[in-house]
Design goal:
By secondary structure, this protein is of the alpha+beta class. It is built from nine helices and twelve strands. The strands form four sheets. A four-stranded mixed sheet has the order 10-9-8-11. The chain has a three-stranded antiparallel sheet with strand order 1-4-12, with helices on one face. The chain has a three-stranded antiparallel sheet with strand order 5-6-7, with no helix packed on it. The radius of gyration is 22 Å and the shape is globular. The relative contact order is 0.15.
Length: 439
């Protein structure tokens, strides 16, 4: 069975059709649970070009199953599948040039029709076709080609589950009433443990995913090939930096002292008027933070979130430290991380909570941690041909890698080799910082 590089790291248990069907249903149901608290009006709003309406996320994740499985010639389903509406291919394609023209990203909030109800009907239409396909709609040879595509589409939808939360947070924050997404989230208040440092010896390490040695059977194509890399001795902070620690940076004039900032970062500070992290507000002398449960007083023990790369880097310099390199965080995640104890979406907090425990804490979950490593191809990487090859490779420019997952990341989605990436000025994502030092 030949599987292109973009799909070679797939979960082979999904070759069992029963397992595949359960996986498909679980992922689709999780997306609906996330959007259930939203009104049709909530789901239609786009507050900035980087934010997509929840309605669009619901449709686009459906479009991926339709375009890459049901309509793909390689799966043998194209002749049998009937589209619900051919216009949806134009409306809900995100950035796949090989799939033809698409509606401009900054104008997704202008798609008032189809309605939210019609988008949900679209989901049901595609789900019915997918369930028939998984059940008995393909012979074994075709199923061997379809299963990796199904796996990729399920993980793709999990990525959009996280985006639904980050995007609706921006939508609700943009409302002058600052409404809450939910009132039922637990609010855990505990002190952050004292910051300590863990040392790592220099050496040659294997980095990246090979489908077996790195744990999860699935990985995106940008996580491989696995390769050797020399890493100098280094130290990592025992936990992410906290709101209280970042507040000291602000109070010490961090946003007005150019010596801490990269040139492009200082330009952003001046041009955008940055004086604090995104979603922070000072009211009557007290700091408040907007979260998915509304606006409330800042907990100084919680990991600081919604930092751009520039802010994370400036804070690290002010702290007498630096940002970790990608390989350093991967080594720590693989050797010390515990995904089962992650402050991810399964925790129900939907907000970073103070790290607990000894040693390296909260490597998984809480906040995505910036690295100083540019998002670039590993040795031997080549994108797959066709639209699937556009998934990651074409974004390997002007972006930096983040590791570890966040409180919005679906359970089981993050792994040591996972390479999230964003531009240097992105602030609406759940991004934070863990300090590192050279030895």
């Amino acid at each position: 069975m030949h599987i292109p590089q973009a799909l070679q790291y797939f979960e082979e248990t999904l070759l069992d059709r029963g397992v595949a069907l359960r996986r498909f249903r679980d992922v689709r149901a999780a997306t609906l649970r996330l959007t259930a608290p939203l009104s049709a009006e909530d789901a239609a709003i786009q507050t900035m070009p980087d934010v997509s309406p929840a309605k669009w996320h619901l449709a686009h994740t459906t479009w991926v199953f339709e375009a890459f499985v049901l309509k793909a010639e390689a799966t043998g389903m194209a002749a049998e599948y009937e589209e619900l509406d051919p216009h949806y291919h134009y409306l809900f394609n995100s950035y796949y040039e090989a799939e033809g023209p698409r509606h401009p990203r900054p104008q997704r909030g202008l798609i008032s029709r189809p309605s939210l109800e019609e988008v949900l009907d679209y989901r049901k239409h595609v789900e019915a076709a997918m369930e028939a396909l998984i059940g008995n709609g393909a012979d074994d040879e075709a199923w061997a080609r379809i299963a990796p595509l199904l796996d990729l589409a399920c993980h793709h939808e999990e990525q959009h589950q996280e985006l639904i939360l980050t995007d609706i947070k921006h939508v609700l924050w943009s409302n002058p009433l600052r409404p809450a997404y939910t009132q039922t989230m637990p609010k855990e208040v505990r002190p952050a443990p004292e910051l300590s440092w863990t040392s790592f010896d220099e050496g040659i390490f294997e980095i990246g995913h090979d489908g077996t040695k790195s744990g999860s059977g699935f990985a995106y194509d940008n996580e491989g090939p696995r390769h050797k890399q020399y890493v100098h001795a280094f130290q990592l902070a025992s936990r992410p930096a906290t709101n209280g620690e970042y507040l000291k940076f602000i109070e010490d004039g961090g946003y007005s002292r150019p010596e801490f900032w990269l040139s492009d970062g200082w330009f952003k500070v001046q041009a955008e008027g940055w004086t604090k992290p995104f979603y922070w507000q000072q009211k009557n002398g007290d700091w408040q933070v907007f979260t998915l449960r509304g606006q409330h007083g800042m907990n100084s023990a919680e990991p600081v979130a919604h930092l751009s790369y520039f802010e994370a880097d400036a804070f690290a310099r002010w702290s007498g430290a630096r940002l970790p390199r990608e390989a350093e965080l991967e080594i720590a995640l693989a050797g010390h991380g515990n995904p089962a104890r992650a402050n991810d979406a399964a925790s129900g907090a939907l907000n970073p909570v103070a790290a607990g425990g000894e040693g390296l804490a909260q490597l998984y979950g809480g906040v995505w941690e910036w690295t100083q490593s540019s998002y670039a191809a590993y040795p031997g990487y080549t994108p797959a041909p066709g639209a699937i090859g556009e998934y990651n490779g074409k974004f390997m420019c002007n972006q930096y890698v983040l590791k570890g997952g966040s409180c919005f990341t679906p359970p089981g989605h993050a792994r040591a080799t996972y390479r999230n990436f964003f531009p240097t000025d992105a602030r609406w994502q759940m991004t934070g910082v863990r300090l590192a030092k050279d030895v």
